[in-house]
Amino acid sequence: MRRYLAIAIIAAILSGMLGFVSAETASAASGHHRAPQCVKVSKYYTKKHKRYVRLKNLCTKRTACYTIVVPWRPDPHGRLKKGVTKNVRYGTDRDPRALYVKNRSC
Length: 106
Hints:
With 106 residues, the protein is α+β, with helices and mostly antiparallel strands. The chain contains 1 helix and 6 strands; from the N terminus they run H-E-E-E-E-E-E.
C-alpha cells in the first residue's frame, strides 16, 4: 500500500513540474522579450583571405544591435546606426563561416 501511495505522490509531483516547465517555455516562445528584427544579412563573402558579412539596418528610427554566430569561435557583436549598410569583418578564410546573424537588444 505504501508503494502505491509513493508512486501516486511522485507522479503528481512530476506532472506538476512538467506543467510548470511547459508554461515557462510557452511564455518564452510568445516573444514578449524578443529584440526587434532590424538587422538583415545582404551577403556573406571572402576578400583577401578575410571573411565579411554585409549587414543592413532596416529600422530607420533606431540603432540596432547584432551578434554574428560563428562555430567554435567567440561571437563578434556590434551595433548599426539607423538605416545604415555596413560590411563587417568577422574572421579569416581559415576560420569557419558564420552560421547566421542574431538580432539582440541594445
